[in-house]
Design a protein that fits this description.
Elements (H helix, E strand, L loop, with lengths): L4 E6 L2 E5 L14 E3 L1 H13 L8 E4 L15 E7 L8 E3 L3 E7 L2 E5 L2 E5 L4 E4 L5 E5 L5 E7 L1 H7 L4 E3 L21 H4 L4 E3 L6 E3 L2 H4 L10 E2 L1 H7 L11 E3 L16 E7 L13 E2 L3 E14 L2 E6 L3 E5 L5 E16 L1 H7 L3 E3 L7 E2 L18
Bound molecules: fe (ii) ion.
Length: 376
């Protein structure tokens, strides 16, 4: 291995000779927990301050390894509070988000869709859709908001704009919105040539800038409905972990193009499993515990959890396993798995002495069928 040498070009640029150096490997952050008590104290604080001009009472849960506001390298997690009668200034932003209501109830207006979001319900906010939040209940409405903002911040491309205070949601989009039906792609006049027997093609620029949009609406996943479709009693044979799927994410299987969300639901009385080896993946997993008591073991470190706790329970590529107790358990897991599918970078090792699979690029992991022990 050779050492790197630098050759400055000017005050902004250098040339770094990295010949012979090993390539990068995963550098996972430490697992962290924000307890229910810490979340409650944050909610109390946000409820006590004057309403900011933009209507956003919000606090970020920040991992101290983050150079910005990330809870994980590519995931921001905020708690947002609105008191009765309050609403946020309408905005749109090019980050997308998952919203999990943890107290109260309110309405999310997103581009022609009004979603009533009650405790433990979930919705998504697609990128660049005008949206606002309104507390329509009688108590504080509290949401956990997960977004891909940290990655956009690193790229220097996080964009937002405030919209008119008096704002009417736009009509929903059921199909392509920007396709020029008389344009060259639609007419078949854009050049498109095969340039080698391997399938490589040479195409007109129209293909890059007149992309057929995939309709992406704000969707509502009511907790009560989902819970009723999953295991509620010992031995009922129903699934104990399922994904909240947004069809707009297609094969990426997400709630947004960046995140999947799963609901885990293990009924009381299930025999806890003995401790053993875990698994690992380079997507990060963040668990919000809805119900039950248990613990996780992350690279040999035990982290106890209970209902109301928020954990970075699986930093990228750390071995982890989760253990519930006879209380059973329920949790939402948010993972940046679809983001990695989009980047062709998702790797998964189910058995620590088994193969490392590139999910989405080769045959995937089997065995995730009902009923099974909970793992994300
Ligand atoms: Fe996992």
């Amino acid at each position: 291995m050779t050492s790197s040498t630098e050759a400055p070009i000017d005050s902004h640029t250098t040339i770094l000779d990295t010949s012979g150096q090993p390539l990068e490997t995963p550098t996972p952050w430490k697992p962290i927990k924000v307890s229910r008590h810490e979340i409650d104290a944050t909610i109390d604080h946000l409820s006590s301050i004057p309403l900011p001009a933009n209507g956003r009472r919000v606090a970020h849960f920040v991992h101290l390894e983050s150079a910005g506001r990330g809870f994980a390298p590519g995931v921001e997690v905020c708690v947002e509070v609105l008191l009765p009668g309050e609403s946020t200034t309408p905005i749109r932003r090019n980050s997308s988000s998952v919203q999990i209501a943890i107290a109260g109830e309110g309405t999310v207006d997103v581009a022609g869709t009004a979603i009533g979001l009650k405790r433990h319900d979930v919705c998504n906010i697609p990128s660049m859709k005008p949206h606002r939040f309104r507390n329509t209940g009688t108590g504080a409405w509290v949401r956990l908001a997960y977004s891909n903002a940290p990655l956009l911040s690193v790229l220097g491309t996080h964009y937002y704009e405030e919209l008119e205070d008096i704002w009417e949601p736009e009509a929903g989009t059921d199909g392509p919105i920007d396709m020029d039906e008389s344009g060259p792609v639609a007419e078949g006049t854009a050049p498109d040539h095969e340039v080698s027997p391997t399938g490589a093609r040479l195409r007109g620029y129209e293909y890059l800038v007149d992309i057929e949009p995939v309709p992406n609406k704000a969707l509502h996943w009511p907790h009560e409905t989902m819970s009723g479709l999953m295991s509620t009693e010992l031995g009922d044979g129903k699934r104990t972990i399922m994904a909240l799927y947004n069809p707009a994410t297609e094969r990426k299987q997400g709630a947004t193009g960046s995140f999947f969300v799963t609901l885990s639901q293990m009924p009381p009385g299930v025999q806890p499993r003995p401790e053993g080896r875990g698994h690992r993946h380079n997507s990060v997993a963040i668990n919000y515990h809805v119900d039950g008591v248990g613990y996780s073991v992350v690279d040999g470190v035990r982290i106890d959890w209970e209902a109301g706790d928020l954990l970075l329970s699986a930093p990228a590529w750390r071995e982890h396993a989760h253990y519930f107790t006879e209380t059973g358990m329920s949790a939402y897991t948010v993972q940046d798995h679809p983001l990695h599918i989009g980047m062709e970078s998702l790797i998964w090792q189910e058995n620590m002495d088994g193969p490392i699979l590139a999910l989405g690029l080769e045959k995937g992991q089997s065995g995730y069928v009902a009923p099974r022990n909970w793992d994300d």
